[in-house]
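Section: protein folds

Sequence with per-residue tokens
===
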Amino acid sequence: MKRKDFLSSIVPFAATFSSVTNGKMLTDPEKPVSLPPYLRPGETVGICCPAGFIDPEELQPALLKLKEWGFHAKIGESIGKKDFTFGGTDDERLKDLQQMLDDPSVKAILFARGGYGGIRIIDRLDFKKFKRDPKWIIGFSDATVFHAHINEKYRIATIHSKMCNSFPTDWSLAEPVQKETIESIQKCLKGERMKYLFTLMKKQDRACRRRTGWGQFKNAGIAGRQWIGFTYKRQDPVCRRYRRICVQH
């Protein structure tokens, strides 16, 4: 099973992070999380690569969808650049994301793809303007390091969701869960009411977990945390049947 196909098979869920480092609270856990302004038609969503590289052609499905939603897209300078597996050098990716953070016309930043690289630039970013004029940061995978950093230091909400490379080329062939998760980005950005459904773990799932053991899915390992584990074996009919809810926070 391809990594991309496997990720799209997992039911989306929200993740929360502890605001503790070296035993000290970085922010008051009782302090409410502030929301960046919701977007209005005609406003701009920036796209950049703080981690892995992406070919400009791969952006087209996402650009078409953003246009359908009524938004303009600003393509960052890191799009199309490549340095090993990265979307440009550390300095190039840093400069591009910093410009997006500081640009008052950009109301949200959608990462083009994940991979690895955010942790190499996170401590060099200046969030002063972002803190005064917050905007939505959108992505998952390597983007987890940005979600954790912004939550811990500034208590500003971000969006954990699919990125540009997850938008299907042919929308008519996309699975319902893929369509739903992508459309949820629009709902978040426009401030529409969201509803989340959760399935309780069943007895079969616990048995499944015991038989197969834990595989570590280390998105948040990038940020120094074990975020989620999952159990899955292709040959195990119980795990295959319940793979969407064999998860533990």
